[in-house]
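dumping this here before i forget
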Amino acid sequence: MEERKKILLNIIVGTIIAIIIISIINLFPLENKLNETFLAISITDPPLIPEGVEGIYLTYSNVFIHDQEKGWISLNSSGEVNLINAIDYAYVLTINKVKVKAIDIIRLIVEKAKVSYLGNNVTTEIHSNEINVKFEAISIKENEINVINIHVIPKLIPIFENEFKLIFNATSKVYPINIYEIFPGINKNDLIKMIKAKRILPIKDILVYNIINQEFKNLIKILNISLYNNKLEIFVENISNKTVIINSIILYKLTTFKIGKIQKVKINFITFLVNYKGEMFLPKSLIEIKNQIIENKGYAIKPNEIIKLSFNGEIRLLSFEKIEKLHRLMDENIIPLEKYTVIIIGSGYANDKEIVIAKG
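structure:
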């Protein structure tokens, strides 16, 4: 029994490390929890500029967000940003306390634009005094710092010798930024103060993170999952134009809560490996997991192929629980009607993640 616990402990440590490395889930200390919800909106992407342009200064008089339930909400923010500098940095237009659940439009009210051309400020015509960025609704997490970055895709067009027109492309985009990946371990209240003071966020690394995650979604896709106490069945499709090696599957449930000053973190999970026949099996050690990934072992799913991955047998999740300084390690069964997360990991950063409700 003691030997089995050592094996299970190895697996949980390895799995948690793997999850952190590939940035699939993030765990933050509960004592760093905010009591209010913040939304920061930032802007990036330099415009397409003619030779000789040294700066494009955009003055905005307000920022609005559209909440799906409450409609338009003013954030009462104004300021100026030099778009040419918004390459490796995201300029923070506003950071505010909000009470919204999901937003689907950001509107920037442009007051004026100024262009520095060959050392002189020149006349700049604005095509529109509104920048409306529409997108699929983004959920706003309660008691967190939410950051949404705007890709405005502006274009500067010469009209006369010393006159330009500034146009903002209708295909402007947004994406959420995980602020804790830029500033890991920082106290949330200190982070808010820093954002307000500096008004810029380094985004070079986070852009790579977003590109990788986009690549994840462009390779494989989970079509359907069935989960029982003695069976796991997953249908996966290769939606890319190249063969992907599916090597491992993680099934987990994360629970965190706080009662008074007592904090509790609990993760229930199990790791499966996949062999070259597409059969799921349980690893015996962390080394087996590591070798599977390093040696790129697993099932080679071809472009447009759909495969059913299944495990038949009792599914016992390892439960790791931390309450203050107390740590507990035990086995637990799948609980019917509970929500679990399934992550499929493959070669070339292939990944997909879906939530499944366990059946009785």
